[in-house]
Input
Amino acid sequence: MNTFLKKNFHAAEHSIVGWEFNSESEIEKTYKNKIEGNELKIVTESGEFTLQSYNDMEKAVEVWCEQFLDENISYKSIFVIYGFGDVRYLRKIMKKYPENLFFVYEPFEYVIVNQMYKYDISDILRNDKLYVFTGKNRYQALRDYMGNIITYENFNDLVYGLLPNYVRADVKEYCGFKECLDYFIYDEIETARLLVGLEELRGRNFLYNLDDFVYQSGIKNLKKAFSEKNLDDYPAIIVSAGPSLEKNIDKLFSYKEKAFLVGVNASLRILKENNIIPDIMVSYDARISDITPFEDDEINTIPLLTTIVGDYRVVKRNKARRFFGYENNDYINKMADKLNVEINELDTGGSVATAAFALAQAVGFKTIILIGQDLAYTDNKIHAGKNNNENKIDSEESGYIKVKGVCGDVVITDSIMCAYRRWFENRIKDYPDLTVINATEGGAFIEGATHMRLDEALNKYCVGKNTEFRKVIDQCGYTFTDEERGRAIDIIKNTENNIGQIKNNILERKKIYEKLDMLNRKHKYNTSEFKKTVEKAGNIEKEIEDSLDMELVKLFVNKADVSVKNKLREKEGNIYEEIKLVVDAGTELLDGYALACDKLQSTWEEVHNLVETEDLYL
Output
């Protein structure tokens, strides 16, 4: 067995999406005749095409990398590279931009195998910033991952690269790739328009939850409370609602006072059915698809970890302590700076289960047990519980991925759950002192975790005396002191009272663009008036960025109109078109902000009406 292939195969699980091989020998057997020989080439109906330079390969790599100019690359840039090719291209560009994400699309799987066979590239394949898409589901996987990471707000940060000879080798394949990307971009734009309601919902949730955020607690308060307790003999148990949960949930009852139990959205109902009430529950979604568990009076007495843009209906119903894991928001950031208050954010990883894991780690648990964390469609089911068709998938449909299962089998999953699995695996790798037990007894294999039956894990790790973590939670402090809270409320009220003036200021700034448009149409580029107007227009964005009040207005901006449309326009080379672009983009942006002020005002009125009719802040 080839030494490089063996080492690279295990590393490939970290970065290659859609990898369907179960062993190195299977790879070698499948591609034996394509990995031997010195030349790396693609063979298609169009002919043979080398992927390496016949003269100076190092020079070829250097020249290729020069297309990516530093002034066009920022820390937010996301590289989309067509072709894996000779690994030296990838190694060079990733070394140059080590903080950026790389999506690499390789239509010819054997090219990757060739490089895995000839070189030790395990360091690249284990890089957390790399995603490689290959195999028969590569189109769908690429779209799914892009959909999970790229939004209509940041797709303008995409940077494209094309390795030599790939297009010539298979024009049809390249057109399919481009069609996939184009479809994604335009689909994302259309989705953006559909998501305007969700953006407004997040803004509405923010306002509904804002007073609660001020009066309640955060991660720093949980950290402080738990820091005073010895957690060595106690694990945290994260209970998710994967299909395997029902296999072992009953075993948890006898140990519920020997561990810190964390339940998430859909698992709450099953926990209650088994007479298990978690110490805290996690709900992060802006809109819960099934609100039923949160209509239960007993569930609403469980302390809640949420986010400031989380579903306000969940927060409104909860009668226990609420903790905000926070969602990075510049209004809160700037308010905290004014008050000189520290507000901790939880690195959530994108799902309620990863948020629960991050919570357990943040408060100091060194052992975390996962149950119901299938990260796969075990037995073709979506969640534990219902056995009807709505809770099942058709595994024969395209887009699903086969991955290694905890039982040594192969399970069906999708690219989104693969991304969550990688989050767990990266977290385990980054924190070697953390012991993670996957006691799900089904679903996907989590690299770095210890896999064992739940009863074995409970016997081994739940060795402390019975304790009530609920008391620890109830004794937590609050985000703000009384004095800080009073000042925070003053800031919020000041923003609300200023909405009318904020809108007037926005409309006044539009006059700057109107003047710039007039000067542009008259081609008065060499006048001092033009230069001063351009300078004023340039300052508008900075004034908006520096304004605390505007951060709240931004929550209600129709980003599908003011962001996406501008990014689709192409810049022309002459000054008239460039100034016209600035004027049009700036005007649309300010119109969007003015409309957002109206939405903010009406939503605030809704909040006040709700508070008057319901006891929202208990």
Notes: Confidence is low (pLDDT under 50) at residues 560-573.
